[in-house]
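Researcher: Quick sanity check before group meeting.
Model: Go ahead. Protein one:
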Amino acid sequence: MVLQYSHSSYNLTGNEQAALLKLNAGDDRAEVYGLRLIACTKYGNAEAARFLLAHGADINCQDKYGMTALHYAAATSYRPCIRLLTSFNECSYLLQDYKGRYASELAYEWGKDYVVGELLTKKQARQAYAQGVPAFVKA
């Protein structure tokens, strides 16, 4: 279930919370919640994304296209989701999608949000420096 509310002040009901947390036998909780996090971010639902992160969603989970929640937030320029995701130290700015694009590139290319693009580029460079790896590598 993906909640398609774009109001950042929207409070989730008990049924919506239960639907977001529902697992089938044998499911990897972090991965399932991570994919739901991606879906919530696609639709700009920052409140549901916050709820999933609080319950163990993998913030760096990649979908079948190699995109993370940050990639989708950057591509759609939904700032409440970007603000939420970048507030976590675990968020990786160095992950690329299957076309070799970083989230910072999608902010420029698709989101047309140059301020977010600059923010993500700087965070990417800082993270790469801290890890001792190149900031920009083309796949």
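Researcher: Fine. The other one?
Model: Protein two, sequence then structure:
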Amino acid sequence: MELTRFLIPLSSNCTTLMTSLIRLIARTLIVLPFLPLIGCGNSEEVTTIIVKGRLTENGRPFILDQAKIPIPKGATAAPPGGESGIVRIAFIPTEGKEQFPAKYVAESGTFEVSGTQGKGIKPGRYKIVITAGHTPGGKVSGDYFGGKFSREQTQIIREVKAGEEIAIDVAKPQG
């Protein structure tokens, strides 16, 4: 008799447990086919691209001739401090105001645009700004290109697409 006293509650608990388990499986099987329709967060997730490219002059890697960098008005030599003869490249969306600087490697004439978070920039059309000169206090003075590729005057516009390198020849800026 003592054994029966333990079996009855055990059987009752097992039945309740089995019923709950069957209901859970049934609910899961009903919901499972609809999960792909629910999605996971923002359905308009933006793809970004780390842009790579080359800066050339007449087809050869661009070499900044520091002797041709204009000295600021009133100066007799390059300004002290800062880097001498730095090239700066920036991408600006044609439909926006953000500016994405490129990391330029002078030795190879290559550059890379990683975007503000290091994950790249959105595909699309970009205006490309190039300046070169002396950089006292972080500001470029005496632009090597005479403002030809400044934010206001640049004619360099390129389409940024996944897997495509951006080629810029300063002698033929429009491609």
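Researcher: One line on it for the slide.
Model: The chain is about 20% helix and 25% strand.
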